[in-house]
Every structure is written in C-alpha cells, then in structure tokens.
User: Fold Amidohydrolase family protein from Aequorivita flava.
Amino acid sequence: MKKRIKYFIKIVVALFLLAITIITTAYLWPNSKFQTPVVYERTIIKNINIVDVVTGEIAEDQFVLIEQSQITKIDSTNITTSENALIIDGTGKFLIPGLWDMHTHSNQHSEWLHHPLYIANGVTGVRDMSGQLNEKDSYWVGSKERLQWNKDLENNTRVSPRYVLQSSYQMDGEKAIPEESPNFFKLQKPSQVDSLLQFYKKENVDFIKVYQQLPKDTYVQLAKKAPKYGMHLAGHKPMFLNLVEAINLDQKSFEHGRIFMYECFPEADSLKNPTSWKAYFSKSKAKIVQRFDSVQAKDLMILMQKKNTHWTPTLQTLKFEANAHKEMFTSNENLKYITSIRKKLWWKYDTDYNREKNLESGGFSISEQFFEASKKQVAMAHKLGVSIMAGTDVTDSFVFAGFSLHDELYELTRSGLSNLEALQSATIIPARFSNKEKDFGTIDLGKKADLIVLNKNPLNNIHNTKDIYGVFLNGTYYNEEKIIELKNFTEIATSSFHMNVKALISLVNSPLIRVQFAD
Assistant:
C-alpha cells in the first residue's frame, strides 16, 4: 500500500513539474515578428479616383506621387519618376484617407493580436483610452510603449497604427487603484490633482481618462488645472455631477451611447448618489429609456455643439448587449482572431450574462431598447451639429480590432449620418480633434501617406470601406497579398498555445486588472 501511495505521489509530482515546464516554456517562447513590406523611396498611384472627405467631391483619374512617407504631388496628368519606383494601377479604384478608431484599448500583446488587423482593415490611427500608473503593467500599455510604437512606425520597422493621443490610466476614484499605488492616483481629495498632473506630464500624456466614480470636487479641479499642464479631459461623464457641468468645464470628448439617457429622465438625480447609483441604474433601465426627455437632451446637445465637445458613441458595445442572445451575432467569423483565454474567461461571462438578461424579457429586451434609443440620439445630436467620432471600444466583448470600425461606420449611417459624414467621423473630424489636421485627415499635398485604396466608391455604399485593395501606412504599401498575411499572422498567434499562456499570465499578474474585476 505504501509503495502505491509513493508511486502515486511521484506521478502527481512528475505531472506537476511537467505542467510547470510546459507553461514556463510557452511563456518564454519567443513571438514571431511580422515582416514589413519593402520600402520604396517613391510610389506612384495611377488613374485613381480621390475622395474628398470634406466636400464629398471625387477627383477622377488622378496621379499621386508618394515620396517616402509624404504625398508630394497630385496631378491629372501622368507622373514619371525613376525606375525603382513602385507603380500601382488605380484604374476604377478609390483613394480615401486612412481611418481612425477613436476609442480603443491596447495591451502588451497588441503587436500580435490587434495591430495587424487594424492595418489590414485600413485603420491607420487609433486613440488608446488606456494607460498605466507609476509602474509598468503586465497587461495594459502606457504612453512609453505607445510612443515607442510610433517611432518604430516612422522608421518602418513595426506594423502598428499611429497612436494619435496618449491617455492616462482611467481615473475612477480610490476603489479603482491598487492599494500599494501612490495616493495621488486615488484622487480622494482635490489637493492630489497637481501631483497626478505633474506625473502624467512627465509621461508625455495628452489627456486624463476620467471614469464614472471620480468624486465631483476632484473632477472639477482636474478640469480646471489640466490645461495648465497641456492636457485635457476625455472619457466617461462622472456619475456624481451633471452633464452641463462637465461640458462647461471643457471635457473634450464623451464616450459611449448612454450619456444623454443618464441625464434626460425625471429621476436623473438618483444616479448621482455615490452610494446607490449602481443599484438604482440596474433596476431603472427601462424607466430611463421610456421616460427620456428629448427637450432636455436637445438643450445638452446644443451646448455640446457650442463648446465644440465631441461625442464617441461606440455603438458596438450597446450592439453587443442587445444581440448577445442571438446566434447569428455570436457566431461571428472574426472570433478566430481572439485568443481562447479571452473568449473563455472574459467574453463568455459577458455573453452569458447579457444573453440571460435579454431572454428574460421574452420580447424586445431593455438592452435592445437602449441600443435603438442611442442611435436615435446620435441622429439627434448630429442634426444639431455635435461632432461625432467613430470609435469601437476594442477590446470589449465582440469588438474586433479593425473589423468593428467598419461596422461602426455602418451603424452611424443607420443613425442618420450620410456615407460621407460617417467617413468624416473616422478621418477629418478626429484629425481636427487631435490637432493633427496638418498631416492627416484628408488627401492633400504634404500630408502623411496613410491611405486606403478601395475597389468601390464608399460614398455610394458605406460597406465599400471593407472592400480594400491596398493600404498605405507611413508611405509603405500593403497590397492584397500582404493584407492576407496580416490577418493570417494574428489568426496563427491567437490559436497558439504559447500566446494563450502569455495572455493568461499577463491578466493574472496585472494589479490593475485585478482591481477592475473586483470593482
């Protein structure tokens, strides 16, 4: 009997050591690197139709010269150059600026899981709404990583979208910050604001990402002092003050489709109680939609327009909640680009929770009502002149890097924007918002060659933004073959054992993730 027990123990120990060895090997296994395309000093696009995203006019049969990363000539007659130039036949095709996704979340594995898909889908710029505290995180990235990615992009040594503005970590009050972090991150009192802003100024951050549970008095101080440090506020509207106050305090952009529903119903003040707002919201969602005050919403939208406050509705997040119970939605073919770890640990829980809520209704669920209401409010805000920016909220459930931006453009057209206006929400409007209109947003002389060659006219059908013939990133051309390689690269990465191990360990080791899930 003792021999059997000893033998059993030896087997268990051996299996344990084997498992540890396998996991360690997988974690340390080097990731592959995508080989960027050949860089040409000069590229000529012949006979291309150029879409003016400002006016909606199309300049037909144009010749475009790109030298290194810049557009240096646009002409209606043939352009000739040296023999070593790359020549692209654009006959019958359409040229638009690279698209920007203005609400994303990158992590330490985005190089493999997100960046290739962005570029394959013509998303050449993103605004990352994540960040770090005073230490490097195992999961989230911060301004240092993103700025290095930008440098590598300029040197054509990395496949990456441009990270157009740098974010702080999300400021959500004391509960959102690990206990061991410096107290000023917790923003328990307004006197900590200067320390926070001094820290992020040194980190070359452009804006402070504000979140829902930030105390009102601290938010007010942040809003007043951030411009003195060269920063602005962007993100959620904190629950404990009203939207009029936040707009008048010059928060530059508001995220997600619920901001007006939170404000425009008779009992909105009940959502401003720090101790009970979550419980009240969960039991009052139907009331929030059904008793929506469109007159009050109109006044808020007019104020946003006057203050040049931008709105990023991220309709994809509400679309997921509304459709989580529908197999046609959850059987998305792009799931092959998502790691098993994320699908099983994160997305499955999210999907099951929303599916159950939707099925309980037995009909038109409250989540579906929220989604439809948010689209009506986008239409209303747009009609009143509010600047709408396209954003998706990668890496939320069933939001796919690159692919979902095209879906967001479609939903914006379903919300009252024309095809041209939807294009503007992902090109010229984000470029102006980011103060980068000099280099991006339109196709003009001197601007960066971040471009998409489409097979069909997107002004006729917004779905044509998906029909990509080629992508220019910093003047480097990704043809159809290279685009397929980009997609395959991420598909192989997400299906690999070692990437899933890395993803799991990065999540478990992140104190920021642990706090987020605990909250």
The chain has 20 helices and 16 strands. Residues 136 and 441 are 32 Å apart (CA to CA). The mean pLDDT is 94. The longest strand covers residues 42-51.
